[in-house]
Amino acid sequence: MVDVKLRVSFAGPFVTFQDEGRPGHMRYGVSASGPMDRLSFAAAHAALDNPQGQTCLEISLGGIQFECSEGEVTLAITGGEFSVELDGKKGTSWSVLTLSQGRKLSIRPGTGGSWAYLAFAGVLGAETWLESSATHASSGFGGGAVRSGQVLTVREARICPDREGEIARYSQRLNDPFRVVVGPQDERFEAGIPELFTSETFKVSDSYDRMGMRLIGPKLALDGALSIPSEPIVRGSVQVSGDGVPTVLLADHQTTGGYPKIATIISCDIDRLVQTRAGQSVRFVAVTAEEAIAATRAETSAQRMYLEEISAPRGTLEQRLLRENLIHGEIFP
Amino acid sequence: MISAKFTAIADHALLVSFADELSDDAHQSVMALDKVIADAPPYGLSETVPALVNLLVDFDPLVTDHKAIETDIRDKLQDLKPVTQQSVLHRIPICYEAPFCPDLPAVAQQAGMSEDAVINAHFGGDYRVLMYGFAPGFAYLAGVPQPIQVPRKPAPVRDVPECSVIIAGPQCLITTLVMPTGWSIIGRSAVQNLTGDADRPFLFDVGDQVKFERIDLQRFDQLKKENAHG
User: Fold this and answer.
1) Are the beta carbons of B10 and A24 separated by less than 8 Å?
2) Which of A148, A256, B6, B19 is buried deepest, with most CB atoms within 10 A?
3) What is the CB neighbour count within 10 angstroms for residue B22?
4) Are A28 and B136 in contact (CB under 8 A)?
5) How many CB atoms are located within 10 Å of the residue A187 CB?
6) Are A52 and A14 in contact, with CB atoms under 8 Å apart?
7) In Å, how far is A141's CA from the nearest CA of chain B?
8) A297 touches B at CB < 8 Å
9) Which residues of A are less than 8 Å from B22 in CB distance?
């Protein structure tokens, strides 16, 4: 089987290789990394019936353009609402298509979202660190950032015409507040400040990358001493610096830190948060630890059903036309 | 029984705190609890992260919850004993010569000592790995001798090379990648904490002891060469 070669003509900053991440090394200062939006990453692989967790490209608002210089492969694009062009023909993210030799694909920011995922039916070659290709952006460890001029290789490439077309999006309430469990240092803030955090509206600032997202909003005044003995941080921790500005720590977070943390965003709401963009409004709502666990369990089972649905092949073109015809009745007069 | 405070972190972790302020006792308790959890992990445990006064216990919310993890840990705290096991001692060769020590003159001036006295004080110290943080492989070592404890510089310096030996206050660190730092750069380690060995990717574990050895530039180059070939 011939390897597929893709020549990258342009890659914006922060386009990186990501697999499911490398959990288990936080005690050595290593965050799990992996996709910012884990559901969209899983959806890209599900739509191709790939084994979950394998390497894909995470595409930032910088975008990417490449040409298939050798071979042919089916690919899936998910995440946000990016704009996709195949040989100049416009499409959107959330689609499966086949790229053959000489054809050009570009993925650029569209009407919404901050991160898109590009998975291939096959195995995308990438460097690994600690058995994972997930890129830790600030160190460059793992697969690393994709650069203009780089040639990507896909081994064991498959062509799956029965999977081509639009991928159903996961239904979620995009404007719902993000659920947080307050603490652990809520006592370090002035009276009423944790309640302010969970009632006021904040804006996403342009200080937003894989390490964290700084928010703009009312000042979250600290009570007394600024620093605490450095303590562990997780993905979703909301730490507040001395000037009262909150930052949500994300996939490539540092593993310990000395700024007080007012709250932690629950894991199943983070995928939705990372797809917001600078200038967008966000709100937070406090839930108990028990409610947080119940929410994650419910969300996980809903996501599993969704991934199962989109992993079913759509059938041959003929079957699809027939099905469309049965539903709409106007394709064949 | 050692008393601890339990705080829920989102849907997937519990923070077990032994104190609000830095203390040796609190760190010993963190180390001891970390060890008993490693020996008998509660069902659904994902990983633990030891820090200065507390331990993060991360778990899979699909199979367990804060209450079950807390119950397990309370049991373990009943007869928690300080870690008695002899900790590992690492001997790390450091070259304190130019061009590896740009901040040595400034540290000497602040300490009111000769550069040589600063070097002697630094490698004479007994260091212990307190915790990791900031970036992959950044191990914070406690034990910088009092006379050479200097505050952070007013502004960070960019592009500080990996294996730089940097100090601030009582803490010392050997950098693992090119990074900006506001700490004082006083030497270069011939050994990297990221080993590149898949079975043992990090040289230091939290709780380990570290002694530094002074080497000259010639020995440093020789060791670097050996490591590159080994």
Assistant:
1) no
2) A256
3) 15
4) yes
5) 10
6) no
7) 9
8) yes
9) 229
Residue A224: per-residue pLDDT: 75
Calculate what percentage of chain A has a pLDDT beyond 70.
93
pLDDT along chain B (230 residues), means of 10: 91 96 91 95 98 97 98 95 80 97 97 97 96 94 96 90 95 94 96 89 95 97 81
Encoded tokens for A279:
């200038």
Q: 3-class DSSP state for residue A34? A: coil
Q: How far is A293 from chain B, CA to nearest CA, in Å?
A: 5
Residue of A128, A231, A269, A285 to mutate, interface with B, max B Cβ within 10 Å: A231
Contacts of A184 in chain B (CB under 8 A): 7, 9, 15, 17
Domains contained in chain B, CATH given:
5-77 (3.30.1360.40), 89-229 (2.40.100.10)
Residues of chain A with C-beta less than 8 angstroms from the C-beta of B66: 289-290, 293
3-state class percentages of chain B: helix first, strand second, coil last, to nearest 5: 25, 30, 40
- Contact between A66 and A104 (Cβ < 8 Å): yes
Q: In angstroms, rounded to a whole number, what is the distance separating the alpha carbons of residues A146 and A132?
A: 16
The beta-carbon neighbor of B132 closest among A184, A255, A297 is A255
* Average pLDDT score over residue span A99-119: 97
Q: What are the Cα distances from residue A31, in Å, to A26, A228, A231, B54?
A: 5, 21, 14, 18
- Smallest Cα distance from A126 to chain B, Å: 17
Which tokens is B31 given? Answer: 């180390």
User: In Å, how far are A35, A235, A261, A282 from A232, measured between CA atoms?
Assistant: 21, 10, 10, 25
Find all residues with CB under 8 Å of B163, minimum gap 6, and list them.
B174, B175, B176, B188, B189, B190, B191, B192
Name the residue with higher pLDDT: A306 or B21.
A306
Check A229 against B21: CB less than 8 A apart.
yes
Average confidence score pLDDT of chain A? 93
Nearest beta carbon to residue B131 from set A184, A256, A292: A256
Task: Tell me which of A132 and A241 has the higher pLDDT.
Answer: A132
- ipTM summary value: 0.93
Q: Across the interface, do B136 and A289 touch by the CB < 8 Å criterion?
A: no
Q: The whole model's pTM is what? A: 0.93
Contact A183 B9 (CB under 8 A): yes
Instruction: Give yes or no for residue A1 having a pLDDT over 90.
Output: no
A-B CB pairs within 8 A amount to: 136
Per the CB < 8 Å rule, is A230 touching B131?
yes
Q: How far apart are CA A251 and CA A31, in angstroms?
A: 7
Looking at beta carbons, which residues of chain B come within 8 Å of A140? Answer: 177
